[in-house]
Amino acid sequence: MYEGGCLLFREERTSARLMPVWPEGSVFNGTAVTFHEPGKAEQPIVLAQQFVMFGRRVSWIGLGSYYAPFQRQCGGVPFLVSKVQPAN
Fold first, then answer.
1. Beta-strand pair 32-35/43-46
2. Tens of pLDDT, residues 19-61
3. Long-range Cβ pairs for the range 67-74 (8 Å, 24+)
4. What are the residues whose beta carbons fall under 8 Å from the beta carbon of 50, sequence distance 6 or more?
5. What is the C-alpha separation between 88 and 77, in angstroms, rounded?
6. DSSP for 29-68?
7. How far apart are CA 43 and CA 88, in angstroms?
8. 69-79 b/e with 16+ CB inside 10 Å = b?
9. CB atoms closer than 10 angstroms to residue 56
10. DSSP code, position 17
11. Which long-range contacts link 64-73 to residues 24+ away (Cβ below 8 Å)?
12. Cβ pair 23, 36 in contact under 8 A
């Protein structure tokens, strides 16, 4: 879901709301994310399609002060995205 300036996903197993933290160089345009992996071709991800995000949850403290406003604004659990693939 995208609301209040926050892109959030619901984890399938626990229904927790996750706030993805994309790799530096990734771009969100409102309908898709261009996923950036150094040394690889850019990978567009259309948010209306199903895909799988790999990575790990982190604490807000672990992200540092730059992300502090997002904790109040978004409220989801930060999730460092390391890989994405279609959900086939």
1. antiparallel
2. 999 988 898 888 888 888 877 878 888 888 888 889 999 999 9
3. 67/21, 70/6, 70/19, 73/4, 73/5, 73/6, 74/4, 74/5, 74/6, 74/8, 74/19
4. 86, 87
5. 26
6. -SSEEEE--TTS--EEEETTS-EEEEEEE--HHHH-GGGH
7. 16
8. ebeeebebbbb
9. 9
10. E
11. 67/21, 70/6, 70/19, 73/4, 73/5, 73/6
12. yes
3-class state of residue 13 by DSSP: coil
User: Pairing state of beta strands 6-7 and 27-28?
Assistant: unpaired
Instruction: Tell whether pTM > 0.70.
Output: yes
Question: Residue 45 carries which side chain, given as an amino acid letter?
Answer: I
